Structure prediction request, 246 residues.
Amino acid sequence: MSLTDAGRRYHDGVASGLGMIEKAADETTQGSTGERVVIACSNPASHYVLRPRHDALRQALGERTQIQPVIFYRYSRNLPLEPVADVVLDWEATIEAEDRVSLFREAVRPVCSPNFAASHAETLDGPVSGWGDLTFLQPGSSDGDWASWEDWFQSAGRPEPEPRFVGFDSYVYSLEAAVEGQGIALGWRNFVDRHLETGALVALGDDYVERDNHFCAALTEQGRVRPIARLCISVLEQSASSQDET
Prediction:
C-alpha cells in the first residue's frame, strides 16, 4: 500500500500543522511551568495593592513568569483549594501564617468625591458631631478584625444624630459609590491613594487614624520551599517601603 500524490500532500500538511501546534504548546509550557507564582488576596487588595505593584513584580520575577492572583472572600482562611497559593496578602489580625512581612500599617480616614465635598462644604468644615445628616458608605462587612466607622468615630467624634449608613458587600463598590458622589466612604491608606492622586476622591478630617494592625504578605506551606515566592515577598516589601518614603 502506498500514498497517492494527494495523500502525500495531505500527510505533509497535517504533519506540518501538528508540528506547529506541538511547538506552541512546548513554548507555552516552558514559559509557565515552574515560573508561576500564585498570590491569594481579597478583591480590594487585588485592585488596590497587587495591581499597582504588578509591573514591579514582573520586572523582578522575569517577563515569562506568570503572576496569578486568586481571590478569596473576606478572610484568608477562605482560600480556594485550587490553585494552591504561594503567597497570601491579608491583614495581620486575620492571616493564618507565620512566615510573613508587614507591608504597611492600617490607617483610615473619610473620603468623598469633590462634588460631594463642595455640596456639603459648610457641614464638612465643621466638627464631626455635625455630620449626622450626611450619608456614610459601609465598607463591606463590619465583623472583621479591620477598622470600621466605629473605630474612626471613637477617635474623631461621633455624628449627631446617628447618620444614615448605606452598606455594600464589596469595599470596591463602596469606593466607587463615593467616587460617584453617593456619600462618604472609609478610606484605607495604600488602598485609596490612586483615587486621591487623580482627584477622583478628596480626603476629609485632620489625618489618618492608625490602628495596631498591619497588612502583610505571607508565604504558604508551598511558598516556603519556592525561591520565586520568597522573591515575590521581598519585592512587595520593597515596593511598600518605597511608597512610604515618597
User: Anything to note?
Assistant: The first strand starts at residue 36 and ends at 41. DSSP finds nine helices and nine strands in the chain. The mean pLDDT is 86. The beta strands are 36-41, 66-71, 87-91, 100-112, 135-139, 164-168, 184-188, 202-203, 209-219.
